[in-house]
Amino acid sequence: MASRLNPYIAFDGQAREAMEFYRQVFGGELTLSTFGEFGATDSPDADKIMHSQLETPSGYTVMGSDVPEGMEYTPGTNVSVSLSGDNSDELHGYWDQLAEGGTVSVPLEKQMWGDEFGMCVDRFGIAWMVNISGSQA
After folding, report:
1. Which of 67, 69, 83, 114 qualifies as a FRET site for 33, CA 20 to 30 Å off?
2. Which residues does the UniProt record annotate as the domain PhnB-like (predicted)?
């Protein structure tokens, strides 16, 4: 397998809900594994997601997990997930779903460099950037 770069997102007890939402947005195959499935059956984290992976038809991979009790959960502003390409319909569809219930900081519109670009934070607190190359909008 070739090397690849993909986001791994930590959630505070919302990993299952968030990853199922991302599967609705992007489609694909989602695997979810709990802490209990890996031996922590008596743990308060037993039903939390220890690891999840979404493989989409477009070739995207998104991974995530819940932060177990005793570990610090500090959402930050130093990571964004970036979607880019030239399929305007596909990327607009993703944008519409990701922005719904979230906060748009930069509307998805034509920018000075000629592409459509937007930034939002989804309802789970994850920052997204969408860039549509060579868009005619």
Report:
1. 83
2. 5-130
C-alpha span between 31 and 20 (Å, rounded): 10
Q: Which CATH class is domain 8-66?
A: alpha beta
Of 136 and 129, the one with more pLDDT: 129
Of 32, 89, 81, nearest in space to 60 by CA = 81
- Going by C-beta distance under 8 Å and a sequence separation of 6 or more, which residues neighbour residue 53? 30, 31, 61, 62, 63
Q: Tell me the one-letter amino acid at 95.
A: W
Q: For domain 80-132, is the CATH number 3.10.180.10?
A: yes
State pLDDT tens for residues 7-36. 999 999 999 999 999 999 999 999 999 999
The 8-class DSSP code of residue 125 comes to: S
